[in-house]
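note to self: dont lose this again. the chain is below, predicted strucutre after it. 230 aa total, dont forget to put it in the shared folder this time
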Amino acid sequence: MLNLSPVPVITLDGASGTGKGVVTHIVAKKLGWNLLDSGVLYRVLALSALNQGIFIEDEAALAALAKRLDVQFVATETGAPPHILLDKQEVTDTIRTEQIGNAASKAGALPAVRAALLDRQRAFRTSPGLVTDGRDMGTVIFPDAIVKIFLTASPEERALRRYNQLNAKGIHVNLGALVDELRERDQRDQERSVAPLKPAVDAILIDTDPLTIEQVVARVMTEVEKKQPR
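---
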């Protein structure tokens, strides 16, 4: 049963590449609230499983691994996103590969895995407030959030964003393949039996295709200030 808390939560859900990670970080920084990137937990779990030779399809083994996962979020002095440590080792960049992203999506479709990570995610709800990034934050993890945002963007636009990010790092990928991978991941996330990717009934939908990050942040902050006037 959900233990309701007076600590306010803002949820930002959406598919991969909609910009929710960057927007969540900026909004949390503006408010001075805590931050939860729920996708990181699934990515770290996927990496740990691959490192230990556990098949992503092995639901029982993955759920057991999730319960003992040694993951840490280390804040940075610059205000940039936190460093991610797995078993005391830096994995911030490693978990952002397409391989890990796809494995995390598969792991996230397994009911026992999602159940194992449920309490760990809710534990991030601490004063003065929490801003979350995920796929089921507003529907399952924090259904009592004061503001629920659901970001959308076309697969083509999301793939182009990812393509440009990778190229900037000197990583060359096929744009068409990225589009196909995103469509496959979307279908898997939307059709999974537990906590499928979908907006909460009271979520505010924002199409990020024509918007800059700054414009999306402004839209979100407008909704937040309606609930939390300064």
